[in-house]
Task: inverse folding
């Protein structure tokens, strides 16, 4: 199988909240929007994100009211500390402060008002 792109689909209470969070703080741009739906892409070719409003009828019936929970968007960067400082300066609340794991991850997390967790990760040696 050849995978040409990847997109994660999130069902949330307020589409605009998650879309603006990714656009304003992570460099995404809106690729498409309609009533109750938005798709954002990243110029670096990072994973796309489709955002659906809870209850949207185009979703399969058993998925319409299931909010994205327990999903973490993980973005790998070159300098997690710099990104944490940038986001703090932009007024984003850091929900898990920068830490370094013994196996070589340096990471922190932020969370949008829909409860979508974004983890910023750097691999260190």
Result:
């Amino acid at each position: 199988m050849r995978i040409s792109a990847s997109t994660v689909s999130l069902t949330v209470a307020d589409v605009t909240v998650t879309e603006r969070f990714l656009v304003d703080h992570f460099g995404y741009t809106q690729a498409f929007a309609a009533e109750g739906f938005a798709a954002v892409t990243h110029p670096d070719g990072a994973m796309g994100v489709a955002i659906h409003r809870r209850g949207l009828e185009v979703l399969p019936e058993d998925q319409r009211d299931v909010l994205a929970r327990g999903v973490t968007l993980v973005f790998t960067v070159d300098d997690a500390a710099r990104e944490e400082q940038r986001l703090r300066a932009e007024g984003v609340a850091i929900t898990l402060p920068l830490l370094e794991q013994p196996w070589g991850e340096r990471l922190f997390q932020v969370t949008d008002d829909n409860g979508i967790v974004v983890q910023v990760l750097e691999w260190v040696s």
The beta strands are 7-12, 29-34, 37-41, 48-53, 72-76, 94-100, 105-111, 117-123.
